Amino acid sequence: MRVIAGKYRGRKLENFEGMDIRPTSDRVKESLFNILGHKLMGCSFLDLFGGTGSIGIEAVSRGAEKVVFVDTGVKSIKVLRSNLESLKITERVEIYNTDYENALSKMGSANSLFDFIFIDPPYNKQIAQNALGIISDLGILHSEGIIVVEHDVLDSMPDRVGILVKDREKKYGSTMLSMYIYEDNK
Description:
This protein has 186 residues and is of the alpha/beta class. The protein has one domain: Vaccinia Virus protein VP39 (Rossmann fold, 3-Layer(aba) Sandwich). 29% of the residues lie in helices and 27% in strands. An 8-stranded mixed β-sheet has the order 3-2-1-4-5-8-7-6. Helix 4 runs parallel beside helix 5. The radius of gyration is 15 Å and the shape is globular.
């Protein structure tokens, strides 16, 4: 794994072997950030199910002002911290080593707002749909914000969850990116 563009372009990221993690491929990551484009500058970014931090670190590299990482895996958080330390990223990041429901609840209580939320949970378990429902209820997405869900192409995502509506989808082999926005922005 590596950082594709921005301040840390070309820097390698630590990873670990095993079934506990499924890193986003460079092809999908590059396409995701091409979609988000220049809007990343100065944004707040939530990397839900962040794993070793590849997506959130890419957001920092491309100019995100603040990135919050959430993951339950002890090994993932250890590698994430190592990646942040090796790149000397010590400011503008927060790490929650807890489940997504608890983390989202804390962010809702703190009135956190994000411009972008990336959701990459274990596939085929309806977790993404549940996370979208919580985000819709808590209102932690900025009014012009975008949520991107990475999922298996066989795991269909609903057209609507609460006040969030699916804006578009992009397919990359067996991986799909589904993008959600507030209904009023459609």
